[in-house]
Write a structure and sequence with these properties.
mainly beta; 1 helix; binds zinc ion
Length: 80
């Protein structure tokens, strides 16, 4: 079965209705060194397993959502 995301506004939809926005990046913290800020922005974890990602529902409500997806199985666990 194809990957589906459950949009909080539109319900369960095929992933082709969404644009992948990448891993959810940590926010900038006061006092963060330039190296830490560079890593935060440009070096994603790209881990095998569960990760938090941003997706944009371009063919539906046109809103961003946050999903936890297992990168090995493509199973979506939580959508906010
Ligand atoms: Zn939607």
């Amino acid at each position: 079965m194809a990957l589906r995301l459950s949009c909080p506004n539109c319900g369960s939809r095929p992933f082709t209705e969404f644009w992948f926005g990448g891993e959810l990046r940590p926010l900038y913290r006061e006092g963060m060194s330039p190296e830490e800020d560079y890593r935060r922005l440009w070096l994603p974890e790209n881990a095998a397993g569960r990760q938090t990602e941003r997706w944009f529902h371009h063919a539906g409500c046109r809103r961003w959502l946050t999903a936890e997806r297992d990168t090995v199985t493509n199973e979506i666990h939580v959508v906010h």
